[in-house]
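Archive entry: two folds, one per protein. Generate the first.
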Amino acid sequence: MGRYVDGFLFAIPKDNEEAYRKLAQKAGEIWKEYGALEYVECVGDDIPEGKVTDFPMSVKATSDEVVGFAWITYESREARDEINKKVMADPRMDMDTDDMPLDMSRMVFGGFRTIVEL
């Protein structure tokens, strides 16, 4: 059995990219402290426009936003569930939603079993 992955897709206002990077850095350090194997945050750089759907459409990104793509890897789903409990209970993760540098309601996320890992 391969690793377990949490994946995220979201829109970040271009003016908030640095604030988001700082938030992600802090969150990533906490996830890694509790046992996540990998924590990666990316912003779109070469995203083609789709005919039916595409990354920006999936999160209703506007022209003043950039698409963010992130993932966290774990040894297993069980490890992920335990790590996420600890992360969510950590007081350092108590973030005021009014200060969030993005609209969390448009975030798409989920947990994934790996089926190929090279």
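Generate the second and append.
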Amino acid sequence: MSRIVAVARNMIAEGIRMKIAVIFIVMLVVIVAALPAIMHGDGTLRGRVQTFLAYSLGATAVLLSLLTVFLSCASVAAELAGRQIFLTVSKPIARWQYLVGKWLGIAILDALLLAGAGVGIYAMVAYLKTTAWLNEQDRDALRYEVLTARASVRPSTPDFAARADAQMERLKEQDRLPQSAFAPTGGWSQVGQTIRQRIRDDLSKQWMSCPPLGVREYRFENMHFDPNEAGLIHLRYKAQVSRYPPDDILRCAWVIGDPTKDGARISRPYLSERADVVRQYHIVRIPADAIAPDGTLLVRFENVDRRYSGDFDKMHRTSVSFSGQGDLEVLYEVGSFEANYLRSLLMILAQLVLLAAVGVLASSFLSFPVACLMCMMVYLTAISSGFLQEAIRELAANPSAFEGDLALRLAVLLKPATTVFLWVVPQISAYNPINDLVDGRLVSWAWLGRAALWLGAVQTTVAMAAACLIFRRRELAQVIV
């Protein structure tokens, strides 16, 4: 262990001495210091802090990733090319200890630089909090929508599977199903299962929709929030409409809370009359005491324009739907911003630890330029793997829609090879906490644990094991410069 630590200590000193490391450190300092002066967001204090957090953390992650690639590839490859490695391996140190020491040194250097940048970013956020806000609503928005950790709850749904089965039985009794819907051995065939799934999807969409001049109630459960504490919860929604209203403005109302609930702390529901642009996300701020003692929240959506109460002829009539993913949810506070911020930094560190292992692996058998090229290809694919996988699924599901595009048709044909490549490349895009942190959403310990397990443990171990195996069998005297 002492030999690994000695190599790691030497790697840290080497990284600090290298001019490229100094350049990256200076760039980090300049970015953290300059962003508040040039980024103003939407003009609100909340928007300014969100913009600063997003760009500063994003720039930090990218710069440290590039620094990790250059250091991990340059250290081993340069010592091989310059033959300084002979001085190391001639000592009583195993080759695997040499590589692990290099990786450990880079990981420690990444942790130190990330910690420094993290402290600087947090200090700047603390400073921005003290600057002037537009109004009290802007101040509360920063406190309860950004500098917090909120969990998301979707409305509790009925048992649509049972309802779909009941409707299938009715169609069967009425002899309205095709013969191909029945399996020879009883039950439903593949056609019958498809019909059943369509019925289930239709029932779900109907339940998440409200007809013109109609009312729809939704119940949110298991909200572990103390209603005795002063605070806000947030109803977040995006309305899809069947007919666009004048000026794309939907006028509706939300009635929130159930005063009839045992132990309810409100004497009447909260009413929020809205005039919102359709197909955009909007927030309704709700006092926390609207949550019942049993952790439930009743929300009623009224698809009416209360300006013309009783005069339905003057109202614009359209169906409203919240059937999209994330179109209707309640966000409530479950933790502090500081803990959320720390977990986000640790998740970024897990990415850097893995990238350092990939760099050591590449430099164990490639020259410096080729190793850098390989690492950059892996890094760019890893951070966009989610988008690439979604694009491949879309191409495979609708190949006929791309008949006129040769490149897209070729992508469909290469789907198996591309899928294998994306499976081998680390899924860094699945562990990107920046968007959730900026939006005040919880970066959970479970999510961090999965990142530490798969990125920092499993995939890092595989990369380092491959590097040690290759390096052990390599003839060091035969170096391609």
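Annotation attached to the second fold: The chain has 15 helices and eleven strands. The chain has a mean pLDDT of 84.
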